Amino acid sequence: MTAPWDPGCVTFAIDRSHATPITAQITATLRAAIVEGRLRPGTRLPSWLDLAAQLGVARGTVKAAYEALADEFLVFSAGAAGTRVAERRAPRPVEAQQVDIPRPLQDMERGFSLRPLPFQMGVPAQDAFPAKLWARLRTRAVRANAMAPVGPPDPRGEPELRGQIAAQLAITRGICCHPDQIILTSGYKNGLCLTLLALGVQGRTAWVEDPCYPVNRMGLAIGGVKAVPVPVDAKGIRVDMGVRAAPDAALAIVTPGQQAPTGVTLSAERRAALLAWAKREGAWIVEDDYLSELQLGGRAAPALAAQDPAGRVIHIGTFGKTISPSLGLGFVVAPVEIAARFGEVAGYLNPAPNVTTQLALTGFLADGHFLRHLRHMKSLYRERRDALHARLDRRIAVDAFAGLAVIAHLPRGYDDIALVRRAPELGIAPAPLSIWYAKPEDAQPGLVLCVTNLRAPILDKACDALAALIDEGAVRPLPAQAA
To answer: Three-state secondary structure along 417-441?
Structure first.
Protein backbone atom coordinates (compact mmCIF):
# COMPACT_ATOMS: atom_id res chain seq x y z
CA MET A 1 0.00 0.00 0.00
CA THR A 2 1.37 3.42 -0.99
CA ALA A 3 0.12 6.93 -0.55
CA PRO A 4 1.42 10.17 -2.11
CA TRP A 5 3.25 12.77 -0.09
CA ASP A 6 0.91 15.65 0.64
CA PRO A 7 2.92 18.69 1.82
CA GLY A 8 -0.29 20.18 3.21
CA CYS A 9 -0.49 17.39 5.83
CA VAL A 10 2.73 18.43 7.50
CA THR A 11 3.66 21.95 8.51
CA PHE A 12 7.26 22.42 9.56
CA ALA A 13 8.18 25.33 11.80
CA ILE A 14 11.94 25.36 12.27
CA ASP A 15 13.04 27.67 15.08
CA ARG A 16 16.81 28.08 15.11
CA SER A 17 16.69 30.20 18.26
CA HIS A 18 15.03 27.41 20.26
CA ALA A 19 17.04 25.21 22.60
CA THR A 20 15.57 22.08 20.98
CA PRO A 21 17.93 20.78 18.24
CA ILE A 22 16.65 21.11 14.66
CA THR A 23 16.80 17.33 14.23
CA ALA A 24 14.48 16.88 17.21
CA GLN A 25 12.09 19.53 15.84
CA ILE A 26 11.82 17.72 12.47
CA THR A 27 11.39 14.37 14.24
CA ALA A 28 8.62 15.73 16.48
CA THR A 29 6.72 17.25 13.54
CA LEU A 30 6.79 14.04 11.49
CA ARG A 31 6.01 11.89 14.55
CA ALA A 32 2.90 13.93 15.32
CA ALA A 33 1.70 13.70 11.72
CA ILE A 34 2.13 9.91 11.70
CA VAL A 35 0.55 9.29 15.10
CA GLU A 36 -2.39 11.58 14.34
CA GLY A 37 -3.02 9.83 11.00
CA ARG A 38 -2.23 12.80 8.76
CA LEU A 39 0.51 10.69 7.14
CA ARG A 40 -1.04 7.37 6.22
CA PRO A 41 0.81 4.02 6.23
CA GLY A 42 2.79 3.57 3.02
CA THR A 43 3.29 7.29 2.42
CA ARG A 44 6.69 7.94 0.89
CA LEU A 45 8.57 10.70 2.66
CA PRO A 46 10.65 13.20 0.69
CA SER A 47 14.27 12.24 0.16
CA TRP A 48 16.84 13.59 2.57
CA LEU A 49 18.08 16.00 -0.07
CA ASP A 50 14.61 17.27 -1.07
CA LEU A 51 13.40 17.88 2.49
CA ALA A 52 16.73 19.42 3.46
CA ALA A 53 16.49 21.85 0.56
CA GLN A 54 12.88 22.68 1.44
CA LEU A 55 13.74 23.39 5.10
CA GLY A 56 17.12 24.97 4.50
CA VAL A 57 18.99 22.49 6.67
CA ALA A 58 21.78 19.99 6.12
CA ARG A 59 20.97 16.64 4.53
CA GLY A 60 22.49 14.85 7.54
CA THR A 61 19.99 16.62 9.80
CA VAL A 62 17.06 15.12 7.89
CA LYS A 63 18.77 11.72 7.77
CA ALA A 64 19.15 11.74 11.56
CA ALA A 65 15.46 12.62 11.97
CA TYR A 66 14.41 9.73 9.70
CA GLU A 67 16.67 7.34 11.60
CA ALA A 68 15.10 8.42 14.90
CA LEU A 69 11.63 7.69 13.49
CA ALA A 70 12.84 4.32 12.22
CA ASP A 71 14.12 3.49 15.70
CA GLU A 72 10.55 4.10 16.92
CA PHE A 73 9.18 1.82 14.16
CA LEU A 74 7.20 4.71 12.69
CA VAL A 75 8.95 4.61 9.31
CA PHE A 76 11.04 2.06 7.39
CA SER A 77 13.50 2.12 4.54
CA ALA A 78 12.17 0.53 1.33
CA GLY A 79 15.50 0.74 -0.49
CA ALA A 80 15.11 2.38 -3.89
CA ALA A 81 11.47 3.03 -3.04
CA GLY A 82 12.57 5.50 -0.35
CA THR A 83 11.52 5.95 3.26
CA ARG A 84 7.88 5.15 3.97
CA VAL A 85 5.45 5.41 6.86
CA ALA A 86 5.07 2.05 8.59
CA GLU A 87 1.84 0.18 9.22
CA ARG A 88 0.62 0.81 12.74
CA ARG A 89 -1.96 -1.16 14.66
CA ALA A 90 -4.80 0.92 15.97
CA PRO A 91 -4.33 1.35 19.71
CA ARG A 92 -6.81 -0.48 21.85
CA PRO A 93 -8.94 1.81 23.97
CA VAL A 94 -7.78 1.96 27.55
CA GLU A 95 -10.54 1.69 30.10
CA ALA A 96 -10.23 4.21 32.85
CA GLN A 97 -9.81 2.37 36.13
CA GLN A 98 -8.74 3.18 39.62
CA VAL A 99 -5.65 1.20 40.56
CA ASP A 100 -4.86 1.07 44.26
CA ILE A 101 -1.76 -1.04 44.88
CA PRO A 102 -0.59 -0.78 48.48
CA ARG A 103 3.05 0.17 48.83
CA PRO A 104 5.33 -2.28 50.65
CA LEU A 105 6.28 -1.99 54.33
CA GLN A 106 3.37 0.30 55.17
CA ASP A 107 3.55 -0.42 58.91
CA MET A 108 7.33 0.11 58.98
CA GLU A 109 8.05 3.00 56.62
CA ARG A 110 6.10 6.25 56.27
CA GLY A 111 7.26 6.43 52.65
CA PHE A 112 10.34 6.24 50.48
CA SER A 113 12.87 8.86 49.37
CA LEU A 114 11.40 11.36 51.83
CA ARG A 115 13.25 13.86 53.98
CA PRO A 116 14.02 12.18 57.32
CA LEU A 117 12.05 13.37 60.33
CA PRO A 118 13.10 13.39 63.99
CA PHE A 119 12.95 9.94 65.66
CA GLN A 120 12.90 8.14 62.28
CA MET A 121 14.53 4.70 62.35
CA GLY A 122 17.12 3.44 59.91
CA VAL A 123 18.45 6.85 58.84
CA PRO A 124 21.92 8.02 59.94
CA ALA A 125 22.58 11.66 60.76
CA GLN A 126 22.01 13.52 57.53
CA ASP A 127 23.91 16.59 58.69
CA ALA A 128 27.04 14.51 59.45
CA PHE A 129 27.30 12.67 56.14
CA PRO A 130 30.62 13.58 54.45
CA ALA A 131 28.90 14.71 51.27
CA LYS A 132 31.80 16.61 49.65
CA LEU A 133 34.24 13.78 50.29
CA TRP A 134 31.78 11.20 48.99
CA ALA A 135 31.07 13.27 45.88
CA ARG A 136 34.80 13.44 45.15
CA LEU A 137 35.19 9.68 45.61
CA ARG A 138 32.14 9.03 43.41
CA THR A 139 33.53 11.25 40.65
CA ARG A 140 36.83 9.40 40.77
CA ALA A 141 34.98 6.07 40.72
CA VAL A 142 32.89 7.06 37.69
CA ARG A 143 36.05 7.87 35.73
CA ALA A 144 37.71 4.62 36.79
CA ASN A 145 34.64 2.57 35.89
CA ALA A 146 34.35 4.24 32.50
CA MET A 147 37.93 3.18 31.67
CA ALA A 148 37.55 -0.34 33.08
CA PRO A 149 37.32 -3.46 30.90
CA VAL A 150 33.82 -4.07 29.53
CA GLY A 151 33.69 -7.71 30.62
CA PRO A 152 31.20 -8.89 33.26
CA PRO A 153 32.10 -7.84 36.82
CA ASP A 154 32.63 -10.35 39.61
CA PRO A 155 29.11 -11.19 40.90
CA ARG A 156 30.52 -11.37 44.44
CA GLY A 157 31.64 -7.75 44.23
CA GLU A 158 34.81 -5.88 43.30
CA PRO A 159 37.86 -7.79 44.66
CA GLU A 160 39.47 -4.59 45.99
CA LEU A 161 36.36 -3.74 48.03
CA ARG A 162 36.04 -7.24 49.40
CA GLY A 163 39.66 -7.08 50.46
CA GLN A 164 39.10 -3.76 52.22
CA ILE A 165 35.99 -5.12 53.99
CA ALA A 166 37.94 -8.17 55.18
CA ALA A 167 40.62 -5.87 56.61
CA GLN A 168 38.03 -3.65 58.33
CA LEU A 169 36.20 -6.65 59.83
CA ALA A 170 39.43 -7.89 61.36
CA ILE A 171 39.90 -4.50 63.06
CA THR A 172 36.35 -3.57 64.05
CA ARG A 173 34.61 -6.93 64.53
CA GLY A 174 37.43 -9.41 65.19
CA ILE A 175 36.50 -11.54 62.17
CA CYS A 176 39.38 -13.17 60.28
CA CYS A 177 38.18 -14.12 56.82
CA HIS A 178 39.39 -14.38 53.22
CA PRO A 179 38.03 -11.79 50.76
CA ASP A 180 36.47 -14.61 48.74
CA GLN A 181 34.24 -15.42 51.70
CA ILE A 182 32.65 -11.98 51.27
CA ILE A 183 29.73 -11.41 48.88
CA LEU A 184 28.51 -7.87 48.29
CA THR A 185 24.76 -7.20 48.54
CA SER A 186 22.42 -4.21 48.39
CA GLY A 187 21.84 -4.35 52.15
CA TYR A 188 20.61 -6.60 54.95
CA LYS A 189 17.39 -7.70 53.25
CA ASN A 190 19.27 -8.68 50.13
CA GLY A 191 21.83 -10.49 52.30
CA LEU A 192 19.08 -12.47 54.01
CA CYS A 193 17.62 -13.37 50.61
CA LEU A 194 21.02 -14.54 49.38
CA THR A 195 21.46 -16.61 52.54
CA LEU A 196 18.09 -18.36 52.26
CA LEU A 197 18.75 -19.18 48.62
CA ALA A 198 22.24 -20.48 49.30
CA LEU A 199 21.21 -22.63 52.28
CA GLY A 200 18.17 -24.09 50.50
CA VAL A 201 16.10 -24.13 53.70
CA GLN A 202 12.64 -23.82 52.15
CA GLY A 203 10.16 -25.91 54.13
CA ARG A 204 12.33 -25.91 57.26
CA THR A 205 12.06 -23.86 60.46
CA ALA A 206 14.13 -21.00 61.85
CA TRP A 207 14.48 -19.40 65.25
CA VAL A 208 13.82 -15.68 65.38
CA GLU A 209 14.17 -13.45 68.41
CA ASP A 210 10.95 -12.21 70.02
CA PRO A 211 10.77 -9.26 69.73
CA CYS A 212 12.74 -8.98 66.49
CA TYR A 213 13.16 -6.95 63.32
CA PRO A 214 9.80 -7.54 61.53
CA VAL A 215 11.56 -8.03 58.19
CA ASN A 216 13.01 -11.30 59.50
CA ARG A 217 9.62 -12.90 60.13
CA MET A 218 8.07 -11.69 56.89
CA GLY A 219 11.20 -12.47 54.87
CA LEU A 220 11.26 -16.03 56.17
CA ALA A 221 7.56 -16.48 55.38
CA ILE A 222 8.04 -15.25 51.82
CA GLY A 223 11.04 -17.56 51.50
CA GLY A 224 9.01 -20.58 52.60
CA VAL A 225 10.63 -20.92 56.02
CA LYS A 226 8.57 -21.21 59.22
CA ALA A 227 9.63 -18.69 61.86
CA VAL A 228 9.65 -19.94 65.47
CA PRO A 229 9.74 -16.99 67.91
CA VAL A 230 12.16 -17.42 70.81
CA PRO A 231 11.91 -14.99 73.76
CA VAL A 232 14.65 -12.47 74.55
CA ASP A 233 15.58 -11.43 78.08
CA ALA A 234 18.34 -9.32 79.62
CA LYS A 235 20.99 -11.79 78.37
CA GLY A 236 19.66 -12.10 74.84
CA ILE A 237 17.89 -14.94 73.07
CA ARG A 238 16.74 -17.82 75.31
CA VAL A 239 18.64 -20.66 73.63
CA ASP A 240 17.13 -23.23 75.99
CA MET A 241 13.61 -22.25 74.93
CA GLY A 242 14.63 -22.37 71.28
CA VAL A 243 15.93 -25.91 71.74
CA ARG A 244 12.65 -26.96 73.37
CA ALA A 245 10.50 -25.27 70.72
CA ALA A 246 12.40 -26.35 67.60
CA PRO A 247 15.56 -28.40 68.27
CA ASP A 248 15.86 -29.34 64.58
CA ALA A 249 15.59 -25.79 63.21
CA ALA A 250 17.72 -25.19 60.13
CA LEU A 251 18.92 -21.80 61.28
CA ALA A 252 18.63 -19.06 63.89
CA ILE A 253 18.60 -15.35 63.09
CA VAL A 254 20.06 -13.27 65.91
CA THR A 255 21.36 -9.78 66.66
CA PRO A 256 24.02 -10.67 69.26
CA GLY A 257 25.91 -7.38 69.32
CA GLN A 258 22.89 -5.19 70.09
CA GLN A 259 19.57 -6.96 70.09
CA ALA A 260 16.91 -5.23 68.02
CA PRO A 261 14.88 -3.57 69.46
CA THR A 262 15.86 -4.05 73.14
CA GLY A 263 19.56 -3.22 72.75
CA VAL A 264 20.80 -6.05 75.03
CA THR A 265 24.05 -7.85 74.21
CA LEU A 266 24.05 -11.63 73.94
CA SER A 267 25.84 -12.94 77.03
CA ALA A 268 28.94 -15.14 76.84
CA GLU A 269 27.11 -18.22 78.12
CA ARG A 270 24.26 -17.76 75.63
CA ARG A 271 26.79 -17.33 72.80
CA ALA A 272 28.46 -20.57 73.77
CA ALA A 273 25.11 -22.38 74.02
CA LEU A 274 23.98 -21.07 70.63
CA LEU A 275 27.21 -22.08 68.90
CA ALA A 276 27.11 -25.52 70.57
CA TRP A 277 23.52 -26.07 69.37
CA ALA A 278 24.43 -25.13 65.81
CA LYS A 279 27.45 -27.45 65.77
CA ARG A 280 25.52 -30.32 67.36
CA GLU A 281 22.50 -30.07 65.05
CA GLY A 282 24.31 -29.01 61.88
CA ALA A 283 22.29 -25.78 61.93
CA TRP A 284 23.30 -22.32 60.76
CA ILE A 285 23.34 -19.04 62.68
CA VAL A 286 22.61 -15.84 60.77
CA GLU A 287 24.26 -12.93 62.59
CA ASP A 288 22.57 -9.62 61.78
CA ASP A 289 25.32 -7.15 62.66
CA TYR A 290 23.12 -4.22 61.76
CA LEU A 291 24.92 -1.58 63.86
CA SER A 292 28.42 -3.02 63.51
CA GLU A 293 30.79 -0.90 65.63
CA LEU A 294 28.13 1.71 66.52
CA GLN A 295 27.73 0.65 70.14
CA LEU A 296 27.44 3.83 72.20
CA GLY A 297 28.18 2.39 75.63
CA GLY A 298 31.88 1.53 75.36
CA ARG A 299 33.62 -0.83 72.97
CA ALA A 300 31.37 -2.94 70.77
CA ALA A 301 30.92 -6.59 71.67
CA PRO A 302 32.83 -8.95 69.36
CA ALA A 303 30.99 -10.44 66.43
CA LEU A 304 29.60 -13.93 66.98
CA ALA A 305 31.36 -15.02 63.78
CA ALA A 306 34.68 -14.16 65.46
CA GLN A 307 33.96 -16.80 68.14
CA ASP A 308 32.91 -19.59 65.75
CA PRO A 309 35.64 -22.19 65.16
CA ALA A 310 33.11 -24.65 63.69
CA GLY A 311 32.14 -22.32 60.85
CA ARG A 312 28.38 -22.25 61.49
CA VAL A 313 27.86 -18.45 61.57
CA ILE A 314 26.85 -16.46 58.49
CA HIS A 315 27.63 -12.81 59.19
CA ILE A 316 25.49 -10.15 57.49
CA GLY A 317 26.58 -6.52 57.63
CA THR A 318 25.50 -3.30 56.00
CA PHE A 319 26.83 0.19 55.41
CA GLY A 320 23.30 1.58 55.62
CA LYS A 321 23.56 2.46 59.32
CA THR A 322 27.25 3.34 59.52
CA ILE A 323 27.37 5.50 56.37
CA SER A 324 24.03 5.85 54.54
CA PRO A 325 21.23 3.61 53.22
CA SER A 326 21.45 5.52 49.94
CA LEU A 327 24.67 3.62 49.19
CA GLY A 328 22.64 0.44 48.78
CA LEU A 329 25.57 -1.74 49.86
CA GLY A 330 26.00 -4.49 52.41
CA PHE A 331 27.82 -7.80 52.59
CA VAL A 332 27.65 -11.41 53.70
CA VAL A 333 30.58 -13.30 55.18
CA ALA A 334 30.02 -16.96 54.40
CA PRO A 335 31.83 -19.77 56.25
CA VAL A 336 34.62 -21.32 54.17
CA GLU A 337 32.66 -24.57 53.76
CA ILE A 338 29.81 -22.88 51.86
CA ALA A 339 31.49 -19.77 50.44
CA ALA A 340 31.58 -21.28 46.94
CA ARG A 341 27.84 -21.97 47.13
CA PHE A 342 27.16 -18.35 48.06
CA GLY A 343 29.30 -17.24 45.12
CA GLU A 344 27.36 -19.47 42.72
CA VAL A 345 24.01 -18.14 43.93
CA ALA A 346 25.31 -14.61 43.54
CA GLY A 347 26.51 -15.41 40.03
CA TYR A 348 23.22 -16.87 38.83
CA LEU A 349 20.57 -15.05 40.81
CA ASN A 350 21.89 -12.31 43.07
CA PRO A 351 24.92 -10.43 41.70
CA ALA A 352 26.53 -7.57 43.59
CA PRO A 353 25.06 -4.15 42.75
CA ASN A 354 26.42 -0.85 41.42
CA VAL A 355 30.11 -1.16 40.56
CA THR A 356 30.62 2.62 40.69
CA THR A 357 29.45 2.82 44.31
CA GLN A 358 31.64 -0.16 45.16
CA LEU A 359 34.69 1.63 43.79
CA ALA A 360 33.87 4.80 45.72
CA LEU A 361 33.42 2.81 48.93
CA THR A 362 36.76 1.09 48.30
CA GLY A 363 38.46 4.47 48.41
CA PHE A 364 36.49 5.50 51.50
CA LEU A 365 37.74 2.42 53.35
CA ALA A 366 41.28 2.34 51.95
CA ASP A 367 42.02 5.98 52.80
CA GLY A 368 40.97 5.58 56.43
CA HIS A 369 37.82 7.71 56.14
CA PHE A 370 35.52 4.93 57.38
CA LEU A 371 37.18 4.47 60.78
CA ARG A 372 37.35 8.24 61.32
CA HIS A 373 33.68 8.51 60.34
CA LEU A 374 32.74 5.75 62.82
CA ARG A 375 34.54 7.51 65.68
CA HIS A 376 32.85 10.79 64.85
CA MET A 377 29.39 9.24 64.58
CA LYS A 378 29.68 7.37 67.89
CA SER A 379 30.54 10.61 69.67
CA LEU A 380 27.76 12.52 67.91
CA TYR A 381 25.12 9.88 68.64
CA ARG A 382 26.09 9.70 72.31
CA GLU A 383 25.58 13.45 72.59
CA ARG A 384 22.17 13.27 70.90
CA ARG A 385 21.05 10.28 72.97
CA ASP A 386 22.01 11.98 76.24
CA ALA A 387 20.34 15.22 75.14
CA LEU A 388 17.13 13.36 74.36
CA HIS A 389 17.19 11.56 77.70
CA ALA A 390 17.59 14.86 79.54
CA ARG A 391 14.83 16.57 77.58
CA LEU A 392 12.15 13.87 77.47
CA ASP A 393 8.98 14.56 79.41
CA ARG A 394 9.17 12.67 82.71
CA ARG A 395 5.68 11.33 82.12
CA ILE A 396 7.02 9.30 79.19
CA ALA A 397 8.02 5.85 80.46
CA VAL A 398 11.47 5.28 79.00
CA ASP A 399 13.25 2.21 80.27
CA ALA A 400 15.61 1.18 77.49
CA PHE A 401 18.37 2.65 75.40
CA ALA A 402 18.49 0.29 72.45
CA GLY A 403 21.45 0.93 70.21
CA LEU A 404 20.72 4.19 68.44
CA ALA A 405 17.17 4.35 69.76
CA VAL A 406 15.14 4.90 72.91
CA ILE A 407 12.03 2.85 73.68
CA ALA A 408 9.11 4.75 75.17
CA HIS A 409 6.46 2.35 76.45
CA LEU A 410 2.74 3.12 76.29
CA PRO A 411 -0.06 1.78 78.50
CA ARG A 412 -1.86 -1.36 77.41
CA GLY A 413 -4.70 -0.70 74.98
CA TYR A 414 -2.92 2.00 73.02
CA ASP A 415 -2.66 1.52 69.27
CA ASP A 416 0.91 2.58 68.64
CA ILE A 417 0.56 1.92 64.90
CA ALA A 418 -2.27 4.44 64.65
CA LEU A 419 -0.26 6.98 66.66
CA VAL A 420 2.73 6.53 64.38
CA ARG A 421 0.57 7.12 61.32
CA ARG A 422 -0.52 10.47 62.79
CA ALA A 423 2.98 11.46 63.91
CA PRO A 424 4.23 12.95 60.58
CA GLU A 425 1.47 15.57 60.86
CA LEU A 426 3.38 16.82 63.92
CA GLY A 427 6.72 16.67 62.13
CA ILE A 428 8.09 13.50 63.78
CA ALA A 429 8.36 9.85 62.69
CA PRO A 430 8.76 7.37 65.58
CA ALA A 431 8.32 3.65 64.89
CA PRO A 432 5.71 1.43 66.58
CA LEU A 433 7.09 -1.09 69.05
CA SER A 434 4.25 -3.61 68.80
CA ILE A 435 5.11 -4.78 65.27
CA TRP A 436 8.38 -6.21 66.55
CA TYR A 437 6.50 -8.93 68.46
CA ALA A 438 5.43 -12.21 66.87
CA LYS A 439 1.98 -12.43 68.54
CA PRO A 440 -0.41 -9.48 68.91
CA GLU A 441 -1.46 -10.68 72.36
CA ASP A 442 2.15 -10.50 73.57
CA ALA A 443 2.92 -7.19 71.89
CA GLN A 444 3.81 -4.23 74.09
CA PRO A 445 2.64 -0.89 72.71
CA GLY A 446 5.30 1.75 72.54
CA LEU A 447 7.32 4.08 70.37
CA VAL A 448 10.87 3.47 69.15
CA LEU A 449 12.68 6.81 68.99
CA CYS A 450 15.87 6.99 66.93
CA VAL A 451 18.37 9.63 68.07
CA THR A 452 20.47 10.02 64.93
CA ASN A 453 18.75 13.09 63.44
CA LEU A 454 17.93 14.91 66.69
CA ARG A 455 19.98 18.04 66.04
CA ALA A 456 20.06 20.53 68.91
CA PRO A 457 17.96 23.22 67.11
CA ILE A 458 15.03 20.82 66.62
CA LEU A 459 15.24 18.76 69.82
CA ASP A 460 12.79 20.84 71.86
CA LYS A 461 10.23 21.01 69.08
CA ALA A 462 10.48 17.27 68.42
CA CYS A 463 10.05 16.39 72.11
CA ASP A 464 7.06 18.73 72.42
CA ALA A 465 5.47 17.06 69.39
CA LEU A 466 6.11 13.63 70.91
CA ALA A 467 4.48 14.64 74.19
CA ALA A 468 1.48 16.03 72.32
CA LEU A 469 1.14 12.78 70.35
CA ILE A 470 1.21 10.65 73.51
CA ASP A 471 -1.18 13.02 75.30
CA GLU A 472 -3.62 12.62 72.44
CA GLY A 473 -3.64 8.89 73.07
CA ALA A 474 -4.06 9.45 76.81
CA VAL A 475 -7.10 11.68 76.35
CA ARG A 476 -8.60 9.58 73.63
CA PRO A 477 -7.14 6.02 73.93
CA LEU A 478 -7.08 4.34 70.58
CA PRO A 479 -8.56 0.88 70.01
CA ALA A 480 -6.06 -1.93 69.85
CA GLN A 481 -4.99 -2.95 66.35
CA ALA A 482 -6.95 -5.91 65.06
CA ALA A 483 -4.92 -9.08 64.78
So the answer is: HHHHHHHHHHCCCCEECHHHCCCHH
CATH topology of domain 152-353: Aspartate Aminotransferase; domain 2 (3.40.640)
> Dihedral (C-alpha) 430, 434, 437, 439: value to the nearest 10 degrees?
-160
3-state secondary structure the chain: CCECCCHHHCCCCCCCCCCCCHHHHHHHHHHHHHHCCCCCCCEECCCHHHHHHHHCCCHHHHHHHHHHHHHCCCEEECHHHCEEECCCCCCCCCCCCCCCCCCCCCCCCCCCCCCCCCECCCCCCHHHCCHHHHHHHHHHHHHHHHCCCCCCCCCCCCHHHHHHHHHHHHHHCCCCCCHHHEEEECCHHHHHHHHHHHHCCCCCEEEEEECCCHHHHHHHHHCCCEEEEEEEECCEECHHHHHHHCCCCCEEEECCCCCCCCCCCCCHHHHHHHHHHHHHHCCEEEEECCCCCCCCCCCCCCCHHHHCCCCCEEEEEECCCCCCHHHCCEEEECCHHHHHHHHHHHHHCCCCCCHHHHHHHHHHHHCCHHHHHHHHHHHHHHHHHHHHHHHCCCCCEEEEEECCEEEEECCCCCCHHHHHHHHHHHCCCCEECHHHCCCHHHCCCEEEEECCCCCHHHHHHHHHHHHHHHHHHHHCCCCCCCC
Q: What is the mean pLDDT of the chain?
A: 89
Residue 478: the pLDDT is 46
Average pLDDT score over residue span 247-270? 94
* CATH of span 7-85: 1.10.10.10
Domain spans of the chain?
7-85, 152-353, 371-475
CATH topology of domain 371-475: Aspartate Aminotransferase, domain 1 (3.90.1150)
Q: Residue 68's Cα: distance from chain center in Å?
A: 37
pLDDT tens digits, residue range 21-57? 999 999 999 999 888 888 888 899 999 899 999 899 9
